[in-house]
């Protein structure tokens, strides 16, 4: 009985929608008329005709492959370093590092920093020190866009996983480390490799899920930093493509095909990473 | 007293001075990377208009003023939906959504963690799987479901989905697992019903976990409405949230970056304040967050 309220909503808003998206992805559906079965056509269009989707796929994979691992390592490394500090300072530093991920729209300040005229901080700095003569259009130039969004994304990425790592390190059994030093662990690297990492495996796996899922879902940051659609689709991602068809063009069937592809990619990579992490400790 | 001082002076295990310095340097660099945007933002929020167009731009504001905050309210004074309405919407959605989420997730977590009921492993596996994809995957079906239920353009379109966020259930269940069974059994022998055990024994023990759920859920709901999902669920101006209003009014224009920073500063205070008050509880909860094989 206690289970019912949560799980009814969970099925309505999370579990069934996945199946629904899968079902609708084989139809043409524009909300006004009832869905029309068209088989694999949406998927064929996606991968063969829709060049913008392929750009989006490429960008999304770039985000996931670069910001995903980087942010994961940063989460762990910083948590590990913070753990060396005294409790009072640790509390403050944790707040500082975690703050970006809970402070909503503050990331828009990066837009001011990378603003394309000479009043932007980055441009002004580079001009003043003689690296460049003309201001660079950071947020309009496809060359820089992706990198800047990645930096912002990294800045935002010390979230739930970071907290889980800090907590995991704090609750670690100190006697393990003492026992390790008797067994011949000499420095902090050995301690990290032989004692800390293995005993934190559950947190590491949880953190991986959090980081992977969010690194594939880049959209709002990109949209508000460089606009939608971004120049030459340089910052187009699967999720912005999905929103384009789902909330602007109302081609629900096609949008559901995009959602299904996204679902498969996210779940697939999570499964692979979980499997790998499980192997590491064995 | 003397003993503690001596213990602190003692060399820590497996640590060396040079590497400690590198650690400190690394922390300082990343601290700067994380912190400088905030300094920027506060400084931009306090800058008078003429100082925005100085070259080279000043990093720290010279003559701080509250003009930008004043401008922000002026912009709202001219919009036909008053500021107080947006504020009310945000608070209403955030509070109700968070409260409902904490209660429902705790209720569901208890049987999953402590009662031997058929299918509990299956349900929990579903929850774990749902952590592995982002909510954007279900955004289209959710939009359709919400419109079929007639909830489009009501607060409930934002609140109901927030009730059943799976991360909350996951964390709550993991935290409840560490409650010793003997405690619950003792209560049962004393004749307490499952409901009483849940409300009077389990819920007080898991206080750190619900504080954690509060910050996670609140943070999500507080910033809701400016993202593409929130915007499509609610189209009446008087039902929109603060976050949406800010992002609409302030989009575009360098001149607006002052009020933009002021708005972002106001918006961030609430979640940050909640986190400051709940931090130690959150850390305690997250230590049980691990995924077991």
Number of beta strands of chain B: 0
* Percent in strands of chain A: under 5%
Q: Largest chain-chain contact?
A: A-B, 110 and 100 residues
Query: How widely separated are the two ends of chain B?
Result: 44 Å
Q: Mind describing the biggest β-sheet of chain A?
A: 2 strands, antiparallel
Distance between the termini of chain A: 40 Å
Protein name (chain B): Carbohydrate ABC transporter permease
Family (chain B): Belongs to the binding-protein-dependent transport system permease family.
Keywords (chain B): Cell membrane, Membrane, Transmembrane, Transmembrane helix, Transport
Transmembrane segments (chain B): 21-46, 86-110, 122-143, 155-176, 197-218, 260-283
Structural description of this entry:
The complex is a heterodimer of chains A (about 280) and B (about 290). Chain A is an all-alpha fold and about 280 residues long. Helix content of chain A is about 70%, strand content about 0%. Chain A starts with a helix and ends with a helix. A two-stranded antiparallel sheet of chain A has the order 1-2. Chain B contains 15 helices and no strands. The chains are: A mainly alpha (about 280), B mainly alpha (about 290). Chains A and B meet through helix 1, helix 3, helix 4, helix 5 and helix 6 of A and helix 2, helix 5, helix 6, helix 7 and helix 8 of B.
